[in-house]
Specification:
- The chain is built from nine helices and three strands; from the N terminus they run E-E-H-H-E-H-H-H-H-H-H-H.
- The protein is about 50% helix and about 10% strand.
- The radius of gyration is 20 Å and the shape is elongated.
- With about 170 residues, the protein is mainly α.
């Protein structure tokens, strides 16, 4: 019965997306926002998501629908590879093969909506982008400006030399 029950998710821009309740409930935020007493109500409930853009919400819904059909395998920590296709199933590694801006917006949406598997996947993807890289390579990857003076950087490297020995 609840399989056919629909819910409307409303993005930051005010766009509405009809989603089956069981899929929407993958979000702990949505789960707490919908009131179960109104199950008999014919009007589909609307859940505003003011922190989630339409383009991101579409991806979140796509993830939730696929996850219901084929749950993602557990992500081993530490990551065994910097190649996401060796960490999760192909569909999931392709799902996070997006530009950095969208990836970070997916992290924010997963965190805001409280969808643990999506947060795990997106954060693991960022971790895979960092894995095995030098600080300089990481700065370049994420366009981070180095605001240390050479002296400060040398001091930090000296204080944290133990990290590189491991």
């Amino acid at each position: 019965m609840s399989d056919t029950q629909m819910l409307t998710l409303v993005s930051q821009e005010g766009d509405s997306y009809q989603v089956p309740v069981d899929i929407a409930k993958m979000s702990e935020l949505v789960k707490t926002m919908i009131d179960d007493e109104d199950d008999a109500d014919d009007d589909a409930q609307e859940v505003p998501l003011p922190n989630v853009k339409s383009t991101v919400l579409v991806k979140v819904i796509e993830f939730a629908k696929h996850y219901k059909e084929e749950p993602m395998s557990e992500i081993d920590k530490p990551l065994k590879s910097s190649n996401m296709s060796e960490v999760v199933q192909t569909w999931y590694s392709n799902f996070v093969d997006v530009d950095q801006e969208l990836l970070f917006e997916l992290i924010l949406a997963a965190n805001y909506m409280d969808i643990k598997p999506l947060l795990d996947l997106t954060c693991a993807t960022v971790a895979s982008m960092i894995k095995g890289k030098t600080p300089e390579e990481i700065r370049k990857t994420f366009n981070i400006v180095n605001d240390f003076t050479p002296e400060e950087e040398a001091q930090v490297r000296e204080e944290n030399k133990w990290c590189e020995e491991a």
